[in-house]
UniProtKB/TrEMBL annotation:
A Pfam family: adh_short_C2
Family per similarity comment: Belongs to the short-chain dehydrogenases/reductases (SDR) family.
Source organism of this protein record: Pigmentiphaga humi
InterPro entries: NAD(P)-bd_dom_sf, SDR_fam
Superkingdom, natural source: Bacteria
Name of the protein: 3-oxoacyl-[acyl-carrier-protein] reductase FabG
Alphabetical UniProt keywords: Oxidoreductase
MF GO annotations: 3-oxoacyl-[acyl-carrier-protein] reductase (NADPH) activity
Enzyme class at the top of the EC tree: oxidoreductase
CDD domains: SDR_c
Any one Gene Ontology BP term: fatty acid elongation
Length: 251
């Protein structure tokens, strides 16, 4: 298993939004391999919860960052590289999605979601890429969603627009950064355990009906996907979007 590898020992890893979704599992996995990890705590997160998550993981720490503020993002990555001694891997973890009828969503709501789910990751990728380019190597992985690739998810128009934009942006960055040893990839997820935690047995039965493998995804599986893309084994993979949907959506 990749988690038993020493490849990530001493690696400098930044998880933006690392206390959200599958972030805690990913944090523990990197730390178990001996990586040095900074969790970027975004305004979408509970700072106390993020601190508690990092506190229980050896080699992990938290630094707050307003990902919608370019100056703040630069300050954050300066702090990360100083603390970690460099920057090898950036992972943008997805924030929770909220739902509403597309025809009823005001412009302000669109701007808010696009700022958090598109401009935020863009600024983080840009800042990380500058530093990785100077170093001549790096791995960037962002969590998107199947809603950014398909139109079947209702009531998530702003989120889908942001996630689709993130996929497109990552492809362009992959092409521009490839000559410098930096890969840029995306993971598009469907339903995962953290999204349905606490759901009733009846609800779960209904949820998995449309998933060919017969279950929702596990956070550890998301972590494995990141590990592959961030490892030497993924060096020839860039500009790609990896589907993690249990066969619910297929290209």
């Amino acid at each position: 298993m990749l988690f038993e590898s020493e490849e990530f020992a001493g690696a400098a890893v930044v998880l933006v939004g690392g206390a959200l979704g599958s972030g805690p599992e990913l944090l523990r996995a990197f730390a178990a391999c001996g990586a040095k990890v900074v969790v970027g705590v975004t305004p979408a997160e509970d700072a106390a919860h993020a601190a508690a998550v990092a506190r229980d993981v050896p080699g992990a720490s938290c630094i707050p960052v307003d990902i919608d503020d370019e100056t703040e993002v630069e300050r954050f990555f300066d702090a990360c590289t100083e603390q970690l001694g460099g920057l090898d891997i950036l992972v943008n973890v997805a924030a929770p999605v909220s739902t509403a009828d597309a025809l009823e969503i005001p412009a302000a709501r669109y701007r808010d979601v696009l700022a958090r789910e598109l401009m935020g990751p863009i600024l983080c990728i840009q800042a990380a890429a500058r530093r990785m380019k100077e170093h001549g190597a790096g791995r960037i992985v962002s969590f998107s969603s199947m809603s950014g690739k398909t139109g079947v998810h209702r009531h998530v128009a702003p989120y889908a627009a942001a996630k689709g934009g993130l996929i497109a942006y990552s492809r362009v960055m992959a092409a521009e950064l490839a000559p410098y040893g930096v890969t840029v990839n995306v993971i598009a997820t469907s339903l995962f355990d953290v999204q349905v935690a606490g759901a009733s047995a009846e609800r779960m039965q209904e949820v998995v009906k449309g998933i060919p493998v017969g279950r929702v995804g596990r956070s550890i599986e998301a972590a494995h996907a990141v590990f592959y893309l961030a490892s030497r084994h993924g060096a020839y993979v860039t500009g790609e979007t990896l589907n993690l949907s249990g066969g619910r959506f297929m290209d």
